[in-house]
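Journal club prep — side note

Before the paper discussion, L.F. wants everyone to see what a predicted structure for a comparable chain looks like in token form. Sequence:
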Amino acid sequence: MPGQLLLEVVTPDRLLFSQQVDEVIAPGTDGEFGVLPGHCHFLSTLRIGELRYRVGETTSYMSVLWGFAEVTPQKVTILAEIAEKAEDIDVERAQAAVAQAEQRLEVGGLPSEVEEAKVSLEKARLRKKTAEHAQRISQT
């Protein structure tokens, strides 16, 4: 089995990340999936979730909101609508967004407004969780 594979995370704005990694765990629509070097070819849609990748003993995190993943034996390409590295997320701002989304959900409204509030809350909680991972890593 080869040693590493290339992970590239691309958003509509830019190439966010490109690095050789040992393992990738991505939030597929049907559940998380893991990829090691030499994996078979496949495509998957992505849901709102946390992308993890490991280099040696260090695991790093990103938030990913929707998109697609293309896997080959040597490369994982994540085409995400929105993606953020954990270290780029402000924890306090993420916590405030969670509180604001929870308030919007409590208010209720039309079914479309409630659904929008649920998605906002899911995104805010993901960003908060991902940012907290970066905080823990930087404190060790």
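L.F.'s comment for the group: The domain at 89-139 is CATH 1.20.5 (Single alpha-helices involved in coiled-coils or other helix-helix interfaces). Keep this in mind when we get to the figures.
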